[in-house]
Amino acid sequence: MSIDVAIVGIGMHEFGRHEGVSGMDQGVTAVRRACADAGVGWEDMQFAFGGSMAAGAADTMVSLLGLTGLQFINVMNGCATGGSALFSAYNTIRSGVFDLGIAVGFDKHERGAFRVNTKGSGLGDWYGATGLALTTQFFGMKINRYMHEYGITNNTLAKVSAKAFRNGSLNDMAWRRKPLSEEEIANSPMLSYPLTQYMFCNPGEGGVALILCRADKAHLYTDKPVYLRAAAVRSRRFGSFEVLAPSIAIEHNAGPTVDASKAAFEMAGIGPEDVDLAQLQDTEAGAEVMHMAENGFCEHGEQEWMIQAGETEIGGKFPVNTDGGCLANGEPIGASGLRQVYENVLQLRGDAGPRQVPNDPKVAYTHVYGAPGISGVTILSR
Amino acid sequence: MGEFMAQVPVTEGVFTWPSDEPHLLGSRCVSCGNHMFPRQSGCPKCTGEKTETVELGRRGTLWTWTVQGFPPKAPPYAGDDNPKTFKAFGVGYVELPGQVKVEARLTEADPEKLKIGMEMEMVIIPLAKDEEGNEIVTFAFAPVA
Ligand SMILES: [Zn+2]
Description:
The complex is a heterodimer of chains A (382) and B (145).
Chain A: E1 5-16, H1 23-38, E2 47-51, H2 62-65, E3 71-74, H3 81-94, E4 100-108, H4 125-130, H5 135-150, H6 154-168, H7 182-187, E5 190-192, E6 195-196, E7 205-214, E8 226-235, E9 247-248, H8 256-268, E10 277-280, H9 285-294, H10 303-308, H11 325-329, H12 333-349, E11 363-370, E12 374-381
Parallel strand pairs in A: 2-3, 2-4, 10-11
Antiparallel strand pairs in A: 1-7, 1-8, 4-7, 5-6, 8-12, 11-12
Helix pairs in contact in A: 3-12, 6-9
Chain B: E1 7-9, E2 25-29, E3 35-36, E4 51-55, E5 59-68, E6 89-96, E7 100-106, E8 119-129, E9 135-143
Parallel strand pairs in B: 1-9, 7-9
Antiparallel strand pairs in B: 2-3, 2-4, 5-6, 5-8, 6-7, 8-9
The structure holds zinc ion.
The site of zinc ion has 8 residues of chain B, from loops.
């Protein structure tokens, strides 16, 4: 029998742009805040999994936090870096190796669209030279095809962004806290048709840390433990349509999100109908729409009326990206997946303040997606 | 400036050049017949280890598309990255029947003129000039008139 796992401490460094503060420092702040939240010291940590994409090797942060000799393993797994750190921490406790540890992710990216390292991504230099090495193009092409197949409208994309900035305005940890109208969003510069500037998230900065322990010891650290019921990471199969692909197969596969979601639901022993709220990867507005169906929360195409009817708003039937998502928080890759879990812990504790989902939500879901075709899902419950 | 300007491909081994009828170069799996682009040694479909180089078809249908509306960062981009002179370009996946969907620049960048399912044909387009004044060319797909 495997051991149940609880999240007993959460810490975050504000997302956004922080001149003169390194990504590592933001990770350290997140760790200290998580320790304070759980009422423990860094010296109590038996193990750590940590990662960043562009802000250095996470394990070097021990020189700032304290050289306690703990097991610290660096995780570097593209957009699922944070999710993979959490997956590893979860299984370390589940297997009984350690009782208390931490997952941390942080990052700091240059401004503008991600500059793709074509060699590091297994692509030829010609690919970037030709002007194809842009993740933004993939998102434009995926949603353009999806709109063609399933009748999603441009206005629905604008509605997704408007919701994100509205939710972000209720979140003092968010980067973009100014609500924008659907018109402002739709009329901002077209970056990658059909997606405009305000339909895309930006690479950013920030850090998040989560302290995990054996569920039977959670009462030592918190009155409101949140249990991690499932954590799954999946890579792509043949035929799926992924970011930075010079070609895709003629035959179709639904992609790693569908696989990770199914695995997580199986692990948790529940279904999508049991989930009260979700944080879904919204690199751009269309991603949130498509990921609602890929994660099993609706059929393809149903998003159109769900979003038009306000079902994904904080007060709606199925709130999505209650903290403003990537759109309002930006995407510091190493921290982004952990931010989603941080938000869900707040929501399940009932501590989300002005953006609290009503009626005491019990089950919450997170999903990250990114290059080169990887998805991570977690399911949390009270 | 010399009066002679040579055209050089952005890379070797991705498309046939010079040629009156340029083709993309792909791989075909010896075991299962799966087509890949660009060329690669292993097959992601059947895990087969042996592939052979093939010229891919020059015509297909547009499977999806977007328009690159801002200058890509240079490097890696070799084309014009100056926001003042940059011209938006189309990008899409073209389904080559029975083979594979290839990602490529499109010669058309007007959303009104791009339609999923339209016929496309492979062409070679200028991309940039190198230090010696040669014209660097790459592949693209153009709507079939
Ligand atoms: Zn094969």
